[in-house]
Amino acid sequence: MPDLLLQKGDLQLLFDRLSGDGFRLVGPTVSQEAIVYDEIASVGDLPRGWTDVQAPGSYRLEPRSDEAFFGYVVGPHSWKKYLFPPLATLLTADRTDSGWAMHAPPEPTEKYAFIGVRACELAAIKVQDRVFLEGAYVDPIYKARRDRCFIVAVNCTQAAATCFCTSMNTGPRCQAGFDLALTELSAAFIVEAGSDSGRQVCGQLPLREATPAERAAAEAARAQAVAGISKRLETEGIRDLLLTNLEHPRWADVAARCLSCANCTMVCPTCFCSSVGEVTDLKGDHVERQRQWDSCFNVDFSRMNGGVVRNDVRSRYRQWLTHKLASWIDQFGQSGCVGCGRCITWCPVAIDLTEEVAALREPGP
Amino acid sequence: MSTKPKLAVFKFASCDGCQLTLLDAEDELLDIAGALDIACFLEASSRVVPGPYDVALVEGSITTPHDAERIREVRRQSKYLVAIGACATAGGIQALRNWADSQEFLAAVYARPDYIETLATSTALADHVTVDFELRGCPINRGQLVEVIAALVAGRRPRTPNHGVCLDCKRRGTVCISVARGVPCLGPVTQSGCGAICPAYDRGCYGCHGPAPQANVASLAEHWVRSGAGPAQLVPLLRNFNGFTPEFRRVSDELAARLAATE
Ligand code: SF4
Ligand code: SF4
Q1: Are residues A249 and A349 in the same domain?
Q2: A15-19, A237-241, A290-294, B100-104: which range is least confident on average?
Q3: To which H or E segment does residue A36 belong?
Q4: Which tens digit of pLDDT belongs to each residue from B4-34?
Q5: Domain hosting residue A268, numbered range
Q6: Per residue in A232-272, pLDDT tens?
């Protein structure tokens, strides 16, 4: 299918089409002085004319000089909050005269259309698909949401100082894993369809074929993102580098700075850890089994009979980084990092994993 | 005779807010009253059944010689002693006196300071007696209090998570106000329990639930100093409801010394 052109004024028609097909629209919107992902009703909710300026430990929402709808990079939220919800009830149980009555929670009925998914985020969804859908155990909560979602990707036309998707081969160009992908120009979007449902939606929109000049303009816009990427993670031999340097002095150095606050794991679009616990009412007659996002940075996360396994920040930071960049490859056949830079921006003390890896490449004193 | 566990609530130097949390547990109050024999709870009833008690919920810090005596008596009378709130677990906001001259305060406030008998410090219950469980917070969280009572009734360990506040912000989708707005926030080093209320209302965390385990307060403070927040701003932030906990105290003392050196 050739590249198509959608006038900016017709973007709402795409939203209407998806709403008409029963999708709840989730997309970028300005809230709490950031561009977050939330339910949106119309193009009026998009962060038009806003951008983000990011650095290690710092994020600022700033006005743009133009009226771009998608003129920002990635923010504090990721799509995982919709596919792998922060809190989920796995089962409820009630005491009855004849024993416990167990109930599975109802299947979710909502289906989401994600608007504005970036290339690194498509890659992150693929990483979580591998974790939740493609192993011996399929997570029904993730599957129900994932099977039904419609993805409108957006190609980046700029990069943040924290981005390094080019090092991880995940972006900035959206290659696959979307239903539609947009590239924003000043007056229109270039639209590519990546699936049958995407092509069907295209058939119901007032699109025309893009001219060679428009296609070239889209290419140039996307090239700006590549040119804007300054951060780099050297991945050559990274698995062995990390796993053979478990006693490198840099681990103690980063442990002196790291707060073990878990923010990096919470914002990471691929981190998938959770804990499961039971919550009862006072009489113990009603029990809910709940799953919540959890993190390897929490002391109690490795508590077992006999004590805590990773009982200092050094071992917890090392666990996180070696899993993300090294043992993830053994476990899932790919890296756990897609280079989105969120853990760098949202670390309250500006710890940058690319710098930590670079330091681990230097021999210790 | 009732076989229900006998519960007593005691108060030391405090504002009563934590005991009020028990009365505030409106949805659960009838169940609590059904599951426990509330033998002594002066805020709710003047009926006092003498000890011993199975469970004592104790609010407040130790600030007078009389307190120091009385907490030992409470300990003798109670099988399971739960310290509730920042006063009981850390000395409370009144522990600010620990950095000052309490005699000077007495002279300024009372016409006859010689009528007042007080200790030089405000300290946690655990500094005086063995405490079986500490429920943190200023005030304590209602849900956590109900959890502690439910656990005691069921004979299991209370489940009160000890991770940091940031996890709760992230679970509820609050954007980090420290990263997005440069607001100094104690969330990364503070124990969860409040549900991360303050950042959701555009305020930095005050550290109401005290330091999280292995809290790296020094690194957080260093980061703020590098980002331009001075010790004059950071010392009062750390010297708050839980200011006298060793983790917060050590760093506020260091910052205060730095401030003194520059003055
Ligand atoms: S690396 Fe940063 S965000 Fe992650 S746990 Fe350490 S201090 Fe928190
Ligand atoms: S480790 Fe950091 S840069 Fe990599 S995917 Fe996770 S949040 Fe993004």
Answers
A1: yes
A2: B100-104
A3: strand A34-39
A4: 899 999 999 999 999 999 988 888 888 888 8
A5: 238-273+295-360
A6: 999 999 999 999 999 999 999 999 999 999 999 999 999 99
Q: Cβ separation of A256 and B223 shorter than 8 Å?
A: no
3-state secondary structure of A111: strand
Confirm whether A285 is domain-assigned. no
Ligand 1 pocket, CB under 6 A: A 258-264, 297, 347-349, 351
A352 shares its domain with A203:
no
pLDDT for the residue numbered B35: 86
Tell me if A289 is assigned to some domain: no
Report whether A184 contacts A70 (CB < 8 A): yes
Residues A145 and A267 in one domain: no
Residue A288 lies in a domain: no
Phi/psi for A20 (5° steps) reads -60, -30
Task: State how beta strands A23-31 and A4-7 pair.
Answer: unpaired
Alpha helix (H) residue ranges in chain A: 11-20, 80-83, 119-132, 140-148, 165-168, 196-203, 212-228, 238-243, 250-257, 263-267, 313-322, 328-332, 342-345, 353-361
User: Do A109 and A212 belong to one domain?
Assistant: yes
Using most ligand atoms within 8 A of CB, pick from A263, A266, A320, A352 the residue to mutate for ligand 1.
Answer: A263
Determine the pLDDT at residue B44.
Answer: 84
Mention every residue, 6+ apart, whose C-beta is less than 8 A from residue B106.
Answer: B113, B116, B118
| Nearest CA-CA partner of A292 in A276, A279, A268 | A276
Q: For residues A45 and A63, state if they share a domain.
A: yes
pLDDT of residue A155: 98
What is this structure's pTM? Answer: 0.96
C-beta atoms of B167 and A293 within 8 A = yes
Sign, Cα dihedral of A30, A35, A36, A42: positive
Q: Same domain, yes or no, for A14 and A145?
A: yes
Q: Count structural domains, chain A.
A: 2
Residue nearest to atom 5 of ligand 1 (CA): A260
Token representation of residue A354: 């690319």
| Domains, chain B, ordered by start | 6-154 (3.40.50.700), 165-262 (no CATH)
Q: Which two tokens stand for residue A89?
A: 């009830």
Residue A365 belongs to some domain of the structure: no
Asked whether residue A211 falls in the same domain as residue A339, the answer is: no
List of chain B residues whose C-beta atoms are within 8 Å of the C-beta of residue A345: 179
d(C-alpha A275, C-alpha A93), whole Å: 19
